[in-house]
């Protein structure tokens, strides 16, 4: 079970409270986690990754286990602690603007 | 008894203001979509309960919201949560926040760049929906004007969007350039007497018209004169801020340009200036009285460098002669120390008798006049900066 935290605005869009829990078959990567999130919550398509390029939106960041994973390859394996559900995969809106 | 519903988009959410036909007491609903920029909301003229909203964020991109009960509840009209995201044949189901430029060889001329601020080619990048214009004949059909400038249409209530690529591909698209606020398609006017005709405006490319339902387009900027571009009378490159028409006279158009208030009597084929005695002919909004096609309204702003009213006095100017002769409307509006702006989509009229006129400010006030502009009062004073105002007149 993978634990994912969404920023407050995306929790509102997805109509969820707290963490989201998903199951993933196969390798756990940024791409597989985001694919699973967007599949369950289609209203989030385009809000985390660009629709066409599938790249992370500029002001969205990915953290886990105290590390900034935003610039890691989307196909790189996520840390074991995320895979086992010990630590959440955090999708964060950058602190910018007013 | 008649009623009015004022749809207000702000930098931090949407607000819905309702009143009976007297327009004296108001109920305030909101913020809807709190914390998001709501560039525009607009209701269908044939199904007033159908309202579309553009919810946008620099962080999370574009979201389209739809209400089918007059703004009480909202949903994204794409695939609902819990439903399969693909159809049985594997094709993706509705993605209401997906706006992709058409570059197909069949329907879109592959147009990959427009002009950047420094004159270099720059790729088209979707940023947000500035304006939503519901069809006059079908509540499920709605047009979207977007940044970077393009026109999209949905025929399924906002579930999916397809670009009308003939606009960008008509010939001048690679020369369009953004204004200070971005390269936005902000005005969409549908001709009520001719379903095939519509007008759009882009900052800072100019105005364009289609006479075949959006397949082909032509620039309609003859007569515009803009000193801030190399050729002041060029076919494109004019920073049009807003166009308005009266539904009974769709060949007559009124324009608030970056500088200059303009009028066309031939559906945009030619324009002439009607700024007349205005204290400044810079501004953003222009609108037309609901029952008097020759009565128009603007809010003069001091200059392009100083986006606030001249002399700190918030004045709506009304012309009852279709331009040139303007009267300041000040009763109920602040006449000292007022330094707000009124953005391009932030004025609207109702169709009650007497005609109501409404506008919102970057200071968060929404002002209303229930007597065609003679007297004004704030409906609300302390909203976030107002981006857009639309009005629905309800039976």
- Any idea what the CATH superfamily of chain B is called? YVTN repeat-like/Quinoprotein amine dehydrogenase
What are the low-pLDDT stretches of chain B, counting only 5+ consecutive residues below 50?
none
* Strand arrangement across the biggest beta sheet of chain A: 2-1-5-3-4
SS summary, helix count of chain A: 3
N-to-C span of chain B: 7 Å
**How would you state the average pLDDT of chain B, rounded?**
94
Indicate the CATH architecture of chain A. Answer: Roll
Helix content of chain B: under 10%
List the domain count of chain B as a whole number.
1
Strand content of chain A: 15-25%
Largest sheet of chain B: 4 strands, antiparallel
- The number of distinct helices of chain B, counting runs of at least 4 residues, comes to 0
Measured by residues with Cβ under 8 Å of the partner chain's Cβ, the largest interface is: A-B, 26 and 22 residues
CATH fold call of chain B: Methylamine Dehydrogenase, Chain H
CATH class of chain A: Alpha Beta
Structural class by helix and strand composition of chain B: mainly beta
Structural class of chain A: alpha+beta
Task: Name the CATH class of chain B.
Answer: Mainly Beta
Shape of chain B: globular
The quaternary structure here is heterodimer
Query: What is the CATH superfamily classification of chain A?
Result: Beta-grasp domain
Structural description of this entry:
The complex is a heterodimer of chains A (about 100) and B (about 400). With about 100 residues, chain A is α+β, with helices and mostly antiparallel strands. Chain A has a single domain (about 1-95), classed as Beta-grasp domain (Ubiquitin-like (UB roll), Roll), CATH 3.10.20.30. Helix content of chain A is about 20%, strand content about 20%. In chain A, a hairpin with a 2-residue loop joins β3 (about 60-65) and β4 (about 65-70). The termini of chain A are far apart. The model of chain A has no long low-confidence stretch (mean pLDDT about 95). By secondary structure, chain B is mainly β. Chain B has one domain (about 5-80, about 90-395): 7 Propeller (Methylamine Dehydrogenase, Chain H). Helices cover about 0% and strands about 40% of the residues of chain B. Chain B has strands spanning about 5-10, 15-20, 25-30, 35-45, 50-55, 60-65, 115, 120-125, 130-135, 140-145, 150-155, 160-165, 185-190, 200-205, 205-210, 220, 240-245, 255, 260-265, 270-275, 280-290, 295-300, 315-320, 325-330, 345-350, 355-360, 365-370, 375-380, 385-395. In chain B, strands 3-2-1-29 form a four-stranded antiparallel beta sheet, with no helix packed on it. Chain B is globular, with a radius of gyration of 20 Å. The model of chain B has no long low-confidence stretch (mean pLDDT about 95). The chains are: A alpha+beta (about 100), B mainly beta (about 400). At the A-B interface, α1 and α2 of A face β6 of B.
């Amino acid at each position: 079970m993978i634990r994912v935290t969404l920023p407050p605005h995306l929790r509102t869009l997805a109509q969820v409270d707290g963490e989201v829990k998903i199951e993933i078959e196969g390798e756990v990567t940024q791409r597989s986690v985001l694919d699973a999130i967007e599949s369950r919550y289609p209203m989030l398509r385009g809000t985390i990754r660009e629709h066409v390029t599938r790249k992370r939106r500029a002001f969205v960041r990915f953290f886990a286990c105290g590390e900034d994973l935003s610039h890691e390859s989307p196909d790189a394996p996520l840390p074991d602690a995320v895979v086992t559900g010990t630590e959440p995969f955090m999708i964060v809106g950058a602190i910018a603007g007013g | 008894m008649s009623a009015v519903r004022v749809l207000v988009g702000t930098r931090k959410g949407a607000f819905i203001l309702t009143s009976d036909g007297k327009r004296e007491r108001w109920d305030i609903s909101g913020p809807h979509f709190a914390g998001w920029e709501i560039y525009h909301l607009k209701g269908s003229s044939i199904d007033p309960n159908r309202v579309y909203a553009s919810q946008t964020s620099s962080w999370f991109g574009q979201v389209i919201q739809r209400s089918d009960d007059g703004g009480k509840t909202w949903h994204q009209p794409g695939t609902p949560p819990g439903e399969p995201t693909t159809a049985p044949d594997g094709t993706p189901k509705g993605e209401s926040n997906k706006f992709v430029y058409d570059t197909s060889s069949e329907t879109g001329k592959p147009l990959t760049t427009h002009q950047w601020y420094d004159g270099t080619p720059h790729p088209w990048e979707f940023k947000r929906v500035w304006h939503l214009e519901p069809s006059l004949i079908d509540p499920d059909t709605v047009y979207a004007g977007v940044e970077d400038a393009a026109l999209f249409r949905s025929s399924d209530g906002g579930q999916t969007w397809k670009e009308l690529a003939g606009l960008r591909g008509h010939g001048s698209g690679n020369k369009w350039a953004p204004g200070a606020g971005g390269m936005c398609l902000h005005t969409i006017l549908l001709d009520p007497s001719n379903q095939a005709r519509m007008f759009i405006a882009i900052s800072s490319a100019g105005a364009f018209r289609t006479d075949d339902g959006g397949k082909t387009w032509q620039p309609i900027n003859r007569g515009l004169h803009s000193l801030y571009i190399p050729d002041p009378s060029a076919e494109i490159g004019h920073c049009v801020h807003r166009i308005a028409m009266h539904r009974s006279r769709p060949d007559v158009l009124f324009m608030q340009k970056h500088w200059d208030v303009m009028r066309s009597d031939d559906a945009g084929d030619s324009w002439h200036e009607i700024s007349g005695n205005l204290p400044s002919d810079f501004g953003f909004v222009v609108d037309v009285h609901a029952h008097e096609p020759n009565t128009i309204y603007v809010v003069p702003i001091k200059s392009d460098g100083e986006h606030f009213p001249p002399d700190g006095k918030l004045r709506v100017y009304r012309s009852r002669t279709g331009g040139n002769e303007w009267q300041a409307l000040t009763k109920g509006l602040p006449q000292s120390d007022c330094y707000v702006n009124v953005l391009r989509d932030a004025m609207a009229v109702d169709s009650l008798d007497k005609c109501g006129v409404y506008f919102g400010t970057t200071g968060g006030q929404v002002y209303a006049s229930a007597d065609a502009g003679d007297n004004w009062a704030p409906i609300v004073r302390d909203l976030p900066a107002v981006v857009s105002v639309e009005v629905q007149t309800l039976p």
